[in-house]
Backbone:
């Protein structure tokens, strides 16, 4: 008899430890309202819908952990969560959260300010990830890309200048999104490496560890809400 492979338990690490200074608001952007709810609530709800029973680990700035607890109680937003304190960098925040994830699981890492992702993409990615150790959503670059350098003029102002001979071929450029989903033992091992400034996302950490990545098409509207303009766009989409 063929013994069926055990399905891996699902975890999501919601990255919401940023201070959100670019938004210029009175609180970090993950707590701003979108469609009558905090952005971070909208984001978590997508994962609850896509994968009922998923374990949610929410990484927050230490100063806002009690604020989030109060919000969930008053709303009420009923979602059992493991709350984790953010680290000095995103790398250290993810590492803190991974301490709460066992080996042999599937773990998604998702930006708390990407609430427009569809439950279908999340569900499809989790299904694919059962047999794919490192799965990254990407979207093709649609703009013409320019390779430029910044130069400071004598009066202190900065100008952008062409780098002679440097050409970016748009046809091979893709933007990486989240959630990035991994077999937890691979991600935990990758995060045992020393911190490197080249680590911009989880995929870069796993690649440096020597593991290959697989890709799937993401969604154009799965934007990261960083500025006031992004918030206007997200409200329009919703």
Residues:
């Amino acid at each position: 008899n063929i013994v069926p492979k055990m399905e891996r338990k699902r975890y999501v690490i919601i990255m919401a430890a940023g201070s959100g200074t670019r938004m210029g608001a009175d609180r970090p952007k993950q707590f701003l309202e979108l469609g009558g709810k905090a952005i971070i609530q909208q984001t978590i709800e997508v994962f609850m819908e896509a994968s009922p029973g998923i374990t949610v680990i929410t990484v927050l700035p230490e100063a806002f952990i009690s604020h989030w607890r109060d919000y969930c109680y008053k709303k009420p937003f009923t979602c059992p969560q493991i709350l984790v304190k953010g680290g000095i960098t995103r790398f250290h925040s993810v590492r803190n959260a991974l301490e709460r994830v066992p080996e042999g699981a599937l773990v998604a890492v998702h930006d708390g300010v990407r609430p427009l992702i569809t439950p279908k993409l999340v569900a499809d990615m989790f299904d694919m990830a059962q047999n794919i150790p490192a799965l990254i959503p990407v979207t093709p670059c649609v703009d013409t890309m320019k390779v430029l350098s910044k130069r400071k003029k004598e009066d202190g102002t900065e100008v952008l200048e062409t780098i002679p001979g440097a050409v970016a071929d748009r046809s091979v450029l893709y933007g990486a999104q989240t959630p990035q989903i991994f077999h937890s033992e691979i991600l935990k091992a990758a995060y045992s490496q020393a911190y490197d400034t080249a680590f911009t996302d989880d995929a870069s950490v796993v690649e440096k560890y020597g593991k290959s990545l697989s890709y799937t098409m993401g969604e154009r509207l799965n934007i990261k809400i960083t500025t006031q303009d992004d918030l206007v766009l997200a409200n329009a989409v919703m």
